[in-house]
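Lay summary. Proteins are chains of building blocks that fold into shapes, and those shapes determine what they do. In this project we predict the shape from the chain. Here is one chain we studied, written as its sequence of building blocks.
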Amino acid sequence: MKRVSNVTVRKRLAIALIAGVLIFSIIDLRLGYVQFFMGDMLTSRAKDSWSRNIPFQPERGKIVDRNGVELAANQSAPTIFVVPRQITDPQGTAEKLAPVLNISVESAYKYVTQQASMVLIKEARKLSYDKAKEVRDLNLKGVYLGEDSKRYYPYGSYLSHVLGFAGIDNQGLMGLELSYDEELTGDKGYVKFFSDAKGKRMGDMADDFEDPENGLDLKLTIDTKVQTIVERELDIAQATYNPDGMIAIAMNPKNGEILAMASRPTFDPANFRNVPQEIYNRNLPIWSTYEPGSTFKIITLAAALEEKKVDLYKDTFHDSGHVEVAGSTLHCWKRGGHGTQTFLEVVQNSCNPGFVELGERLGKETLFKYINDFGFGQKTGIDLQGEGKGILFKLDRVGPVEQATTAFGQGVAVTPIQQVAAVSAAVNGGVLYQPYIAKELIDPETNEVVMRKSPQKKKRVISEETSKQIREALESVVAQGTGGKAFVDGYRIGGKTGTAQKAKDGKYLENNHIVSFMGVAPADDPEIVVYIAVDNPKGTVQFGGVVAAPIAGSIIGDSLEAMGVPKRKEQIEKKMNWDDIPLIETPDLVGLTKKELQQQLVNLNLDISGSGEKVVNQSPDPGVKIKQGSTVRVYLSE
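And here is the predicted shape, written in a compact code that computers can read:
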């Protein structure tokens, strides 16, 4: 037997030792790397394999008006989830769950026996608080409530076409809800619990909770005080005239901020599925395109004044009731015409032949240049979806007749928002602004403004002097012309009536018009422009001055008061027509006795409240002009 020397043994032991140390060093290094560098990641992966997430939906950002009044908010609406592997008695669980959720036992059984780690019960999405409490009180193993919310519109159909609506998953589907969906949505949170391979909950591991990140709040330019007045007047007009449709826009002419916007027919955003798509899918104030009629004459007037083609007070025009243009006869609305009149009276009387004359003085190139400068034939750029562009004649196809009809608002098609933006430019000193309705995005946690929109000036279209003349002319239309029913004592209102024929299959319809009124106030320093259009009002004479003007007058008067705009004394005296109700000053009733009251109010009604013998307060205040037959409220006390 060969004998191994001690030296060889020692060498082999040394090699083995070195190899062992090296191997164990590698193992130690690997264990250290796994422990210190990969530990969190591997633990997280392990937890993920054991975990079940119950989602917590973020709260969708609120939509509020300029003063913080909530227009779209959220209501808590929990959703039911089941973890089938944790359910030890599927049949019993299904029998208890089914009647509470108003589903069949068979459907409930299918949910609780599915081969899935977690199952959402579709019929149990966004439950009411009471229904969620019923499920919680059942105390069923494997049945969980996930925090969720649903969109809530506290004012129902109020501002519905602007706000739009959100779907079952709180995703924006229409209107501002869609346009600002990404900003309003936020990020989900969750409660994470842990279970073994059999689905049984692991009691020795604490649940994880990740807060949801709520969406940003959206503040609008809308003023709910003005919007409420607009909605009220449209409701009254709907009941009075039963029209095919109505449109209303109120805008601050100095910066393009939309103060109110509404249309009829309307809908409740919470129940949009119950109305035809063409109702909720069309925001008429920005989408609808039609002939404007005489409200468009403001643009022709602005162009003629800017180009110094007319002096409203010195130049005269004789209206025989019609005018011949290239073999076509164009009629004035007044049979027999208005006779000889100044051009200020042409504006007051809304005389078509007079505006044909202004169009001829301008020429087609200049007339259409101003029409384009005022923004017609193009989108205004308002931050709402579905805006129309309108339809204008191509310049190379404009002949004498097309030029003439365009001058008084016939043969062209425009949108309501285009008209409001253009007239605002005509009266605000001559600057065209881009209309907008979203004002700010705000972080609800910190109240920090994340985004703020500023007014955007597009261009100057006319001079300050021309704008001043237009305001004066429009005020005279209300005080002494066709817009008389928009007159409000103490508020200098300017405006223009419109009565446009509706076309179908290339022909104008009989006794079917869109009647409108464009109002501006106060006329010396405009704070609001209001446009009202009523489509085919029933049971009345279809004229803008008869139907639309009084609606606009009520909106403007009440809105200016709500906005805190003081009344003016330098008002053009109103020309009284045969059907106008006379205005009388409210007498001073404070201090009078009951007996003396009856001797004071000959042409007014009395509404008495309180107890006592003497008047201590009254509304309206003394000296305020109100219509004869109006009600004066007084309060009695000792």
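What the prediction tells us: The two ends are 138 Å apart (CA to CA).
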